[in-house]
Amino acid sequence: MKFLSILLGASMLAIASATSSLSRPNIIMILTDDQDVHMHSLDYMPLLQKHLMHEGTTFTRHFCTIALCCPSRATLLTGKAAHNTNVTDIITPHGGYPKWVSEGHNDNYLPVWLQALGYDTYYVGKLFNQHDVDNYDEEPAKGWTQSDFLLDPYTYQYENAHFSRNGGKPVSYKGQYSPDVTTEKMHEFLDMALDKEEPFFLGVAPIAPHANMIPAPLEATPPVYAKRHAHLFKDYKIPRTDNFNPDTPSGVSWVAQLPQLNDTVIDYNDEYQRCRLRALQSVDEMVESLVHRLKAAGVMDNTYIFYTTDNGYHISQHRMHPGKECGFDTDIHIPLIVRGPGVARGVKSMAVTAHSDLAPTFLNLASGAAFGGDDIVLENAPSAVPRLADLDGGVIPLLEDTQPSDSTKTEHVNIEFWGNAAGEGKYGFHGDWGVINTTVNGYVNNTYKGLRLIGEGYNLYYTVWCTNEHELYNVERDPGQVRNLLSSSVLNGLTASSDLLRIAGRPLAAVLDRLDALMMVLKSCKGDVCRHPWDSLHPKSRSSKVPVVNTLVDALDEQFDAFYAGQPKVRFDKCELGYIPSSEGPQHVSPFGKGNYNAANDDQVRLGHWSEWV
């Protein structure tokens, strides 16, 4: 099979000419629920390693942009950040399937676009929260040639699943193991797809390793595993990293107030993770059965398999009960493994990628080519298919000869969250679906904006909470994210010459000015601005005297110090449960050379200059 690689600066080719010479590939996406990287769950999936990791590329710097299933899936299926989907929670009024529909996404998302490109589309498993036995036929999920969706309130009941086939009446699978039922349905859809001539997209979304959820009153217990896996991992313990139940509190806001976990809770949490690993064994078997069927059908060489999850997971890190919803890497750094034609085998890619990049990547594959740059426009696609400029994500460099160059690679991921956080398990949250985000059963004030930035000489996580508390972690030196460089207790323990107070050769205060300005752009960005945020701060100039700025290192040029010091600072005026822009302070930066914003003249900028407190 011949593939066409198009990099930045190359002439654009029409889809019509591309597809005439290329065989459009099949695309399969396996989407688990709450799978971790930092507790090494992938190490306990030998079949996944054999068939995908050893035969494909593992993207080691892949992130979700919001650590909660429904909004993360909305981003994955639209290529848009949560602040643009406005699906920011798992239930109404700010999230869930009804919110997805009311925002108009049911008419304008990935399967609809793929069908416009001539694909058959299939989906089995979990789609969204609040897609339930009462509303499944009120506004059926559009765009699917065949579908079989798990329905609430049974979605997370491993031995009491209810599915709706093509919008039909719910069918109970009580007594059967839900991930195994999902695998059987995947096989059926795969057989259907292989019997037809059209290329296909197949989404497979088992619930493992999500907690087993029992409604009314809501209880989140460890996931149920198949009996055939009960003997596994009995000696496993969660890695005792420096962020595991630390002696000194870490983080800010409610995280900093958590009591240290006692031995009883620790023992429970270890077993909780063992249950998660056992539940993932059914997914591991699913992967092998899928690959074997593709090989038997002779289509493995024309099929891409993407393996990922909706968000990560923490257990005992930062003294937290099992859960997600935080901006720490435990929650946002997630698996992405890709196998397919032209994809390097057994390789670990260092490209910085995010869930908002998946829909654009699928569209590029569906157009008949695998492109390497993120400035490709689907020039002649049907009108139902968005152009890249309409999406917030870019195209993931999949092929060996399309790895990003210095001029096209991305270093940033925008992180965001609104609402409360809730611990799971015996010692975590207990309550009702309807009140989880309106009471103090969860952790309040968990609304924040975050920025992950990874480049040559820096690996950073920066956060501004709705309480206007700030965090900055040098993840290269502090992978557990326990030393907040904006904490007085941490700063007081450092000497003025400490390497931790200089990043990429510049003082911490100067770096913070740049990070905050970049976050200001990303927190409300759309389209091209999300992919190229530095362009909003430094519009391209013809003058050779003004350096081009594409990265943090470029922006750290000393001539820009006053410019960045004068930018408005990211802040919140109020903690909200959803995306309310009027509560999120300044929204815009002042571009370089366009008349600089002077923070000293704005009495609403509560944080002032970083140099005042760093």
Percent in helix? 10-25%
Q: Name the CATH homologous superfamily of the largest domain.
A: Alkaline Phosphatase, subunit A
Total of domains:
2
The CATH topology of the largest domain turns out to be: Alkaline Phosphatase, subunit A
CATH hierarchy class name of the largest domain: Alpha Beta
Rounded mean pLDDT score: 88
Q: In order across it, which strands form the biggest sheet?
A: 6-5-4-3-7-1-10-11-2-12
Helix/strand-derived category reads: alpha/beta
**How far is the N terminus from the C terminus?**
56 Å
% residues in beta strands: 15-25%
Radius of gyration: 24 Å
Largest beta-sheet details? 10 strands, mixed
Number of strands: 19
Residue stretches low in confidence (pLDDT < 50, at least 5 long) are 1-22, 370-377, 430-441, 596-614
Number of helices: 17
Architecture per CATH nomenclature, i.e. the level-2 architecture of the largest domain: 3-Layer(aba) Sandwich
Q: What best-fitting shape do the alpha-carbon axes yield?
A: globular
